[in-house]
């Protein structure tokens, strides 16, 4: 495994750790709220930095691979769905928004499988990258809200913060489906070109 793919794999390893620390205060009767929050932010930063760095490392070292083109978006999906599932269970994100995002991500996996069957490794497109940035932004805002709920860190914004976070989730849903349409067009053109 090359350095870029190792960075990508780090997201797969850290995602369940994020999940565990998100629920640690609930499992420990309210204890470890501060520790949990600090660790969640550290994990979040590492996960998101690995997403930025893996592609840069692959291009910089000339080790771009078909495995990396598939592993990178897969690791993105695992990490971001983990964030969003945590937020759903904790009452921060509406379940229907999570479902729309999850359906989109499963649909993309299907599209990639169809393309891979024909020997085409479908890399992330511009719309998918924009969506990924919004996922990260909304996940960060979700963590800010969780921090406020558990520690009262942003009490002055307590009334407006949930609405800001909800709006960011809404933008994430919209961008996810807009980019999904783009991938479906690519799939359609691929099969039309083969006809």
UniProtKB/TrEMBL annotation:
**Gene3D superfamilies (alphabetical):** 1.20.120.1760
Recorded hits in Pfam families, A to Z, give: CDP-OH_P_transf
InterPro entries in alphabetical order: CDP-OH_P_trans (IPR000462), CDP-OH_PTrfase_TM_dom (IPR043130), CDP_ALCOHOL_P_TRANSF_CS (IPR048254), Phosphatidylglycerol_P_synth (IPR004570)
- What parts of the sequence cross the membrane? 6-26, 38-61, 81-111, 132-151, 163-188
Pathway(s) the chain acts in? Phospholipid metabolism; phosphatidylglycerol biosynthesis; phosphatidylglycerol from CDP-diacylglycerol: step 1/2
Q: Which reaction does it catalyse?
A: a CDP-1,2-diacyl-sn-glycerol + sn-glycerol 3-phosphate = a 1,2-diacyl-sn-glycero-3-phospho-(1'-sn-glycero-3'-phosphate) + CMP + H(+)
Which family does the UniProt entry place this protein in?
A: Belongs to the CDP-alcohol phosphatidyltransferase class-I family.
Protein name stated in the entry: CDP-diacylglycerol--glycerol-3-phosphate 3-phosphatidyltransferase
């Amino acid at each position: 495994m090359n350095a870029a793919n190792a960075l990508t794999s780090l997201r797969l390893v850290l995602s369940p750790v994020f999940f565990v620390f998100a629920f640690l205060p609930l499992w420990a009767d309210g204890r470890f709220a501060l520790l949990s929050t600090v660790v969640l932010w550290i994990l979040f930063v590492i996960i998101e930095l690995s997403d930025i760095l893996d592609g840069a490392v692959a291009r910089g070292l000339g080790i771009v691979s078909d495995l990396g083109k598939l592993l990178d978006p897969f690791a993105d999906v695992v990490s971001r769905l983990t964030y969003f599932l945590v937020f759903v269970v904790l009452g921060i994100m509406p379940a229907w928004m999570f479902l729309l995002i999850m359906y989109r991500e499963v649909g993309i996996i299907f599209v990639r499988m169809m393309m891979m069957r024909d020997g085409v490794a479908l890399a992330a497109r511009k719309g998918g990258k924009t969506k990924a940035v919004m996922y990260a932004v909304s996940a960060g805002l979700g963590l800010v809200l969780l921090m406020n709920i558990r520690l009262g860190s942003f009490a002055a914004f307590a009334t407006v913060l949930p609405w800001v976070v909800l709006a960011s989730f809404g933008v994430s849903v919209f961008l996810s489906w807009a980019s999904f349409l783009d991938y479906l067009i690519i799939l359609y053109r691929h099969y039309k070109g083969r006809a």
